[in-house]
Amino acid sequence: MKPSPDSKMWSSMMWSSVKYLERRVLHAVLLLLGASILSFLFSSLAPGSFFDEMKLNPQISPETVAALRSQYGLDQPWPVKYFRWVKSVLHGEWGYSFAYNQPVRSLLVLRARNTLLLTTLAMLMAWLIAVPVGVWVASRRGHWEDQLTSASTSFLLSVPELVLALGLLYLVIRTHALPVGGMVSTGFDRLGFWGQVSDLAAHLIVPVTTLVLASLPILIRHVRASLIEVLQAPFIQAARGHGISRSRLLFRYALPAAANPLISLFGLSVAGLLSGSLLVEVITGWPGLGPLLLEACFSRDIYVAIGVVMASTLFMILGSLLADIMLVAADPRVRTDHA
Amino acid sequence: MATETAATRALQPALMKASGLSKRYVQRTPFSRNKFAIDALVDVDFEIAPGCLTALVGESGSGKSTLASCMAMMEKPDSGEIWFEGNEISRWSPRKLAPLRPKIQLVFQDSAGALDPRFSVAQIIEEPLEIQHRESGQQLRARARDLMEEVGLSPDWANRSPLQLSGGQRQRLAIARALALKPALLILDESLSGLDLSTQAQILNLLLDLKAARSFTCLLISHDLTLVGQVADFVAVMHQGRIVESGSTAQVLTSPQHPQTRKLLASAQVLESAFRTARAGGRP
């Protein structure tokens, strides 16, 4: 059967979308390569190494220290160290931790899992709050609800994450309402399933609330601004003219049309999943990548630090790749532009 | 020109009437008490006779689109009254206005911006019918295809994106969408402005054919007095938020009283010949 002009056109658009995504994946791989090279270059410029403190110990001879440096390849120039590290990544080890005496991967997986639990929850909650609030205040532009939200988001924007976390910790400590620090209480293993869930949830409240409060103002402002722009578009006016209900107008017409900048922002927030919470984790004692990176930097455990940086970079790239895929799916103009 | 039928219809009560309509836009400067105010409409009285094609003409910024928005209840006037089918609607709540909205449909100037790029051509026509629960399923699809044919769009384009249509085709699509709800009043807000002369004439011909077939009332907003002179029964000329002259097309065109009308008449004569050529060739 002869294909219709429409089916030809759609297959051409699909093909161009695939080509577009192929290019994005290639960019992502190159970006990852560039980030890993820069990480190694900068870490090699940093003074000192994990074994430098041993030199101060009179019981360890300089020859032993030199032998250890040689054993771990620290006496090699950085390009050699880099290729060894790439080989180790390909073997699934991600380098070797001097401090923990084990492959970096096992450390990273455990800590990244904790960080992902925290940040995914925080991100989901932040978006679930920001989208309806942003849409609502955009539809009430200039009214008292809009002005109150604007004042609240300005206030939250001006308070640093550090102060938010400390303030919440102070409240929790004063009221004894929630456990402070760590991920679970002692005796966690003896609790039943729901007991474990509620214990974990109680530990999550302070860091998740801090992260949500820190990201909410930016998200609400972006949703509001995108919606306001779209609500003035002629096709929205036309839909109003058809007698559309307010909720259908906002959620079926305006929100999808305002999705482009929000999808890019969503990509960035996925990108910040691993890196965004580092400070909050350190302050609230959440055993994620934040404290691991801090310890690795203090002890010059170079491969652990590079591992954390690379994990964050990987998430950043995956986040923007996800945003690209969502953009292609959501916006016919992106598909048409590449057709 | 105003026909005998139009003159008879003009004697009937107006389908839509604005009386003493005023609208002011105020822009505040950030961190300052200074305000910048524009009087878009100043004490406007305006009538649209049923079954007629009334043209609203004026230069850019004269308040034509604001008047159209107020009459389509897209914007609330600051003061004055708007009467539609014998009811004063300017103070009606959005809930009370909802059943009235399908009776007044707008076709915008920016045809690309007026069509949601995420919808296909068929979906764009189906959407108003779906909103008003008038049709569903296969009936809805068939109705969309009928409307496409009626405005001269091939039903084979039903699954296309509006982005893949030309400016003229998009304007036909916008007219089909507006007609889907069988409005009593169709307002074309500078809908011909972005198009080349030949396409303008084609759309205008289409409008006349549709109006003859469906007998709706039409308000045509334009800055080109020569163009509307070919098709309108009545003309009103706007200048700086006021209606400065109005009457039958023949009266306004042959003996313009206001300097603004004379100025508008003097400009854009070239379209007349293009329109005559297209009209002589039948429907393009």
Structure, explained:
The complex is a heterodimer of chains A (339) and B (284). With 339 residues, chain A is an all-alpha fold. Chain A has one domain: Orthogonal Bundle (MetI-like fold). Chain A has 14 helices and 2 strands. Chain A has a two-stranded antiparallel sheet. With 284 residues, chain B is α/β, with parallel strands linked by helices. Chain B has a single domain, classed as 3-Layer(aba) Sandwich (Rossmann fold), CATH 3.40.50. Helices cover 39% and strands 24% of the residues of chain B. Chain B contains 12 helices and 10 strands. Chain B has a 6-stranded mixed sheet, sandwiched between helices. A 4-stranded antiparallel sheet of chain B has the order 2-1-4-5. In chain B, strand 7 (185-189), helix 8 (197-214) and strand 8 (217-222) form a beta-alpha-beta unit. In chain B, helix 5 (121-131) packs across helix 6. The longest helix of chain B is centred in the last third of the chain and has 18 residues, at 197-214. The radius of gyration of chain B is 19 Å and the shape is globular. The two termini of chain B are 22 Å apart. Classes of the chains: A mainly alpha (339), B alpha/beta (284).
